[in-house]
Specification:
By secondary structure, the protein is α+β, with helices and mostly antiparallel strands. The chain has one domain: Muramoyl-pentapeptide Carboxypeptidase, domain 2, CATH 3.30.1380. The protein is 27% helix and 16% strand. It has a four-stranded mixed beta sheet with strand order 1-3-2-4, covered by helices on one side. Strand 2 and strand 3 form a beta hairpin. The longest helix has 14 residues. The termini are far apart. It comes from Bacteroides intestinalis. This is Peptidase M15.
Length: 152
Amino acid sequence: MSVYKCKYFKIQELVCNHVMQSYSEEQIWSFLDEDLKKTLDIIREILGVPLTINQPKMKVYQRGLRCHLCNLVQSNKTPYITTHIQGKAVDILLPADCGMTAESARHKIQESADKLPCNIRFEHLQKGVPISWIHVDVRDNEKDEKVYWFNV
């Protein structure tokens, strides 16, 4: 059985540099949830613009799969088991000139939810403030909604 690989993303765009330096590309593709990988390709097609997750050239590595060595994980004092650590989440940035905000892009994706291979979750607010990126994950949601919005 072959491992699904994204059509629109290179593996280094989806995982932290620690993982990239420690495993083969084939192994790493298997660390990411298959539904997430398929969802990312479909979101790219729905939005019709290039999407940015990690930016290795700018040394930005923690928007996809994170490991225990990543700063965002190490800074926690309590157990930290997130969808990013499980290979089920990414944070997407849109091109500045695409004419969409993260909010409008989330709505556009929701309007085409029937194309998605599974239920997804969008993070919407952090401490009451709308976030400027698209956090999407494929974790089960308690309401079994195709697109579930949550706040942190």
